[in-house]
Every structure is written in C-alpha cells, then in structure tokens.
Write the structure tokens for this entry.
Amino acid sequence: MSGKKGRAFPHERGIAWGCTVLLAILMTVTLLSALAAQAVTSEGLHARAATDGSVLDRETAAIHAYIDEMETEYGINGEPLKEAVSRSALEAYNRDAAAWWTKLLTTGEAGPVPRWDAGTLEEKANALPAAEGGGTDLQKVTSELTTVIDRTVFPLRETVLGKGLSVAKEKADFPGLINALRNLPLLGLAACLLAAGLIALLTGREIRLSLKYFGTALAGTGIILAATGILLAVLLPQLRLELASVSMAAGTGTLNHALLTEAMIAAAVLLAAGYGMLYLFRNKRVKAL
C-alpha cells in the first residue's frame, strides 16, 4: 500500500498514534516520578513545610495548651515556660528535624537526632516559685515538658528510632531505592525522547502532521496530570493524620500543597503547549486521519 506524494502512509500514521499514546504515558510517569523524588529528597521542600506558619502555630498552641494543664496540676505559673517555648525556637527545631528526616530517607542513616534544647526551659523552671501547699519537682516539670515538645515536633520519634529503624535497615536498601527514584525521571525523559523521535520519523513525509501527534500527547499528559492532582487532593488522608498528630497533618498538608501546585502548573503548561500545537495544525488545514 502506498501513500500519496507528500503524505504519510496509513500504517505510519497508525504506528504514530500508538507512539503518541506511549509518549503521553511516559511523560506522565516521568513528571510524577520527578515530583515523588522531590517529595522524598528535597531538604528545602521539607524545611519549608516544617516551618510553615500554620505548622508552627499549631505546635505552639498544642504545647502552650499542655503548659496550661501543668499550671493546674502543679500549681505553677506557666507564662515563663511559654516564653521559653517560643515560635522562633520551634522554627529552628523544626528545621533541624526536617534536615534529619531528609538525611534518613536519602541515606538510611539516622545520625545525631535533634533534640529540644532544654537550657532556657530549665532556667525558666528553676526561677518558678514553689507551688502552693508544697514544693514542686521542677526537674520533673522540665523533663515532662521537653518530652511533650519532642513528641509534638517528632510525633513518630519512638517508633522510628525503635524497631522501625532497625527493621527498615534490615529489609530495605534506602540508598539504592532513593537512587533508583532519582534516576527514574532521567530514564523516563530518555524514553520520551525516543517516542518523540519515532513520531517525527514516522511523519517525516508529512512533517506538519507531527503537530497533531505531539499536541495530542502534550494535552493528554496535561489532562492526566491535572486529574491525578485533583484525585490526590481529594483522597489524601488528612483526617487520619490529624488523629496521629496535628502538627504532622499540617506539615504534610503544606508539603502536599506545594507538590500539587507544581503539578497543576506543569499540567497548565502542557495543556497550553498541546492545544497550541493542535491549533497550528488545524490552522494549516492539514488533512490527516
């Protein structure tokens, strides 16, 4: 079977359509894997999520609420303790915690675990007057409050540093898994270039026809990416995280919001580029199947 002069053969167009579908799938996988790699390995993204205003506000409110309970239990003035647990101190602690988590995920090594600096807290506690009706164990107050702060910023501290970390080291190769995740977008990009090259080769007789295939692939990827983002935004288990830790839920929500924003921007760019190519194709009045 032969095609008209200057026209692609029917079988070439059919194969090109198959490559178009493959290209859309490969681009989707590549972009999603790039976002996943960023979510796991980006220390800056983790630090931004951990030091977000809503996270710090929730952590500060939760700790100060516990100090209020200690006021009733121990009969002490909790205001000096609240001053010691300041928002800026929590921000620095959260930043160190984010760096520790990122190192753990990327290398599998825990390293020195960040802990709350109780020096200022001890000074404030030691300056408190004794409780009415008897003395107050100020050392116990400091220790108890430090534990609460650690658990607020590190809600899974005991789980991760206990059996969880040892089991993970025995069962999983963290560096290998992370390297594979980092390399996946590059492999996907190479596969996308191969599929795009095949489309260009198949439409070489009628090069303007490639605009239809490339435009369809780009627009299709944008639609899939947007649909995936909307689906994840609806289904992400925020309510379940609230049960484990309010601050964890806030931090995860901030991280998800940042990634979903990037995904939606990428989807918008792909849709604009895809429909732009399709417009050029139609405007040139190219007759194709």
The chain is about 80% helix and 0% strand. The radius of gyration is 28 Å. Residues 246-283 form the longest helix (38 residues).
